[in-house]
Write a structure and sequence with these properties.
By secondary structure, the chain is of the alpha+beta class. Helix content is about 50%, strand content about 15%. The protein is built from five helices and three strands; from the N terminus they run αββααβαα. Strands 1-2-3 form a three-stranded antiparallel sheet. Helix 3 crosses helix 4 and helix 4 packs across helix 5. About 20% of the residues are buried.
């Protein structure tokens, strides 16, 4: 075995598509391409959030954790297809804010490493 077989960052950075379900659990034509939790983008956003959280805690200020989640998801979103609306970070943030069931799907998908790796052949 080579250690490089364990590397995940490149696959997570490249991203993967998830088909979005509506609020009733039915498939929609919308596919959102996102980066995984091992991606540089996600880890950079997480580091930024940890710093902000630490600074807020030192000041006794409250932290908007929902905003943190949405910021992380937007930073990991690469684009979408299946809609006439062009992808922008602003529209993405609006979607995740006003359609929490979409945000939840993206959050769950990003957290599953297997969504970003290729199956390895059995020996």
């Amino acid at each position: 075995m080579k250690l490089t077989e364990l590397y995940t960052v490149d696959n997570h950075e490249q991203g993967s598509e998830v088909q979005i379900l509506d609020d009733q659990g039915n498939k929609t034509p919308l596919y959102i391409k996102v980066k995984g939790t091992d991606s540089v983008s996600y880890r950079r956003e997480l580091k930024k959030q940890k710093t902000a959280y630490f600074e807020a805690a030192q000041k006794g200020a409250e932290v908007d954790t929902e905003k943190f989640v949405i910021d992380a998801l937007v930073s990991c979103t690469i684009g979408w297809r299946g809609t006439d609306e062009k992808y922008t970070k602003k529209l993405c943030r609006e979607l995740y804010t006003k359609a929490p069931f979409v945000k939840d799907q993206i959050d769950s998908y990003i957290g599953e490493r297997k969504n970003f790796t290729k199956a390895k052949p059995k020996k």
